[in-house]
Specification:
- The structure is a single chain.
- By secondary structure, the chain is α+β, with helices and mostly antiparallel strands.
- Among the domains are: 153 residues, no CATH class; 144 residues; 72 residues, no CATH class.
- It is 31% helix and 34% strand.
- It contains 23 helices and 27 strands.
- The strands form eight sheets. Strands 4, 5, 14, 15, 17, 18, 19 and 21 form an eight-stranded antiparallel beta sheet that branches. Strands 1, 6, 13, 24, 25 and 27 form a six-stranded antiparallel beta sheet that branches. Strands 2-3-26 form a three-stranded parallel beta sheet, sandwiched between helices.
- Helix 2 packs antiparallel against helix 6, helix 3 runs antiparallel to helix 4 and helix 9 packs across helix 11.
- The two termini are 27 Å apart.
Amino acid sequence: MADAIPPTNVFKFVALRPPTPPRDREGGFIRDRRDPRETPVGRLVAGFRPADAARIPELVRAFIERHNYDLEFPQSAGDTKLDAVEAAALSLPATKITTQNLREKIESALGLPLEDFLGAPDTQRQLDELWDRYYAFVLLGLSTPQNLEHLTRNLRIFHLLQSIAAGMPIDGAAGLARILSAQPVVDKFMTTLPQPAPPAPARGEEREEAPGDLTHRQLWTDLVNTHAALREVRSLPTITRTEQDTDEIAVPDTCSGRETKTQVTRVELRQEVDPEAFRAMSEETQDALSALRVTQDNFRLPTTLDALSGRLDQLNYQVRAADPVKFLEQMPPGAMQVRELNYLANSVKDTMVIFPIPTLFPNIRGSIKPLGIGDLKVVKQTLKKYAAGEVAHIENVLRGEYKERKHRVLDRVEETITTEVETEEETLRDTQTTDRFELKRESEKTIQEQMSVQAGVTVTASYGPVTFGAHGDFAYSTSTTEATKNASNYAREVVDRSVSRIQKKTREERIRKTLHEVEELNTHGIDNKDKPDHVTGVYRWVDKYYQAQIYNYGKRMMLEFIVPEPAAFLAYAQTHKPVKDVSPPKPLPKNFRPYDLDDWNYHDFIRDYGVEGCVPPPPEFKLMSASMASEGKIEAGIAVAKTSKDLVIPAGYIVQDFAISVSVIHTTHPSVKVSIGRDDIWWVLDNSGFNPRRDGVAGSVGIHEGIVPFSINVYDVHSYFLQVMATCVRRWETYEAWQIQTYEKIRTAHKALQAEYEEKLAAREVQAGVVIQGQNPRINREIEETELKKQCVQMLMDTWTFGSFDAMKQSGSEDVPSMDIFDALKEGKQVQFFEQAFEWENLTYLFYPYFWGRESTWVEKVTTFDVDPLFTRFLQAGSARVLVPVHTAYNDAVMYYLENGAIWGGGDAPKLDDPLFISLADELRNQTDDLANAKPEGDPWEVVLPTTLVHLQAGPELPTFP
């Protein structure tokens, strides 16, 4: 059975050595005799500026058209001398090819000595023009594939003429072939072109900026500016401002009905933003406030912050609807300094497989250099047998004994915490009205006595004589008056009593019952009751035996890579692999903590994990107010004082500032005193109006939750009205408590979803029956090579290009995928180059220990095992050294790509003037063996690999080894 298993690659190695320095006389390379910077094309390249980066192909094409350059020069101009020289050189038999014979043949074809031909001004001009065309089309080939075969052939013919004239020994067909296959060398100055800054994500060739890019960039700008505006507005200083106005009104007198003149004065004391500080805000903040129609006149801190927060809500909804890749591509560097935006970027990144931000990750392709030349040798192995190895365990049971093992695992967690917060606020207003009806009786008694005495002379006359007489009179009278009066008196008494009471009762009761019960019963019994002898079971480790053989694949140019944590993506994929009808919950962000929650992102967690019982965060500001007024006209010259306890600061808030508004009706010179908490403010009327004796309310700022009493004391006013408004700001402990409570609910919901997912997986495993540990070792080798290949390609490609292949389009999960033909053609060229230019099937790699990886993964790696020991080393590796052989047909193309960053489109790739690359190409050109015939070297040998499998041997005898 073992013979039917084909051989597999057990490991590879390379007999490597560094490249030798270039020889003094390089017959394999052709150089221009001129300084490249002094050529017409060199001057064109020297004139390129960064602003021309996107137009370079257009400028080069215009240059070629202006100079009438073509790819068939000089034959296109009717000059066929070079064709005659090539035909003459190739007409010699292989055995007669020498430097002298080649000279004679070529001079016969030219009709003049070789030195005269090469020294002629027309010949030198023709050679220079040939180089100019070669440079121009190499430059154009960076954007559009060009076939340089004809120009390269003519340069090689000139190279043959120069080599013969210099007396270079040319012996046989191999020597001639070497000259006629020489590679033109191009100075790196010719291909070092300015690049657009910043570099745009390359999806094939250059593309114009999409309208969506501007939208995403503007979205980032709005996010940064709005967050900056929030921080700046919160820190604005305030000043206390007093405003007043007095109006004269006519009040009718209730008794006389005449109107009397009186005055109504309104005084308002409030905190306002400092005008100088408002004008000194940044231009971005001013623009953000202008967009919300907030000016200095209507600025109020709570309403302004609410408006900015609402704007952030709108922007975050736009982020959720944006394309995550394109959104993060436009992320400005300054956004990483804003904690909320940094968290936002990471949360968007978690939804992506690739995080391509070109401005953050520089290109490293230019630092990859060929390691050298080596004989690629592959050790192939053939599985021969499985055999019992060392003793793993011995089980002994005495005669007449019954041994049984039971193993039970139970994990139960039960937690009961009660959380109940009860706040009772009671305001009792007792208004009593008493009506009194009194009967009052009055009695009045008057006794009057009167006595009168009269004496005098009486004269009587009537039309006759007068008669005189004397008389005396006495009168006495007595009078008594007695009256009884009944009167009724009606009076109404009104007693107004206000009682305010706040009772806060806090009781915490949180019931969390988590019953995670895993009962695993393993019963293993050995019955030796009725047996005459003891029972001994010997368990042996199982080893694999292979036959190994070395095969030599010949000379290769090798590239070396150091790959970090080669199994990192595989480990991630295994823990996140989808199961049909069973989807894992979205993982929580890395290092998720309570303070990562804010007013704008907690909705996402509620949506992702179905969190129940979450409440919105407490508002940042609350506006509390209370008022009191006189209940009737106050007589002039009387002082009145009244206190109210209706102003209540809510729990979890602190007073930031007060606004006081007082309105009084008065006649002469009133005074008003308002007290709030620990502050007293006097207003006294003088010639200039009401002037406060204390400008500002500061002592009571900072009062925590509870009642803030306020009072008014007035003198010489008829009536008053007082209103107090307190701006309360949320305490950081209040917001932190909300964060912790919401965080705990999110964690609980995530754990529930994870437990449900694991239960479904466990049920699937039970349904699957017997599960074989590990997988086929051949599959493991393919996984190792694929993961290493992926990371090597990522290093070779532009960082923002790798992972951006999207020729197959699908707008929605329910839509049918459809191919974009143009993207497929562009991406196909890159795929073909990377798949064919490197011999990925002959990767040579070596795994380094786990401690060369992230420290956070050490425990996970060192405890990871597989039944395949080689695969275990792959899973545990902290780093890996990878040698990638280059296909011999792509040596020049790969070196051109490494040096220039472009994939050559057709014909022989131009050789850049790099001594390292030239020496490598020189050696490989002459020392490459046939690809198709890998030759075995040496004798095969046996390889033994341990496994984690255990075998119970037939008998109790202990093994013996020779």
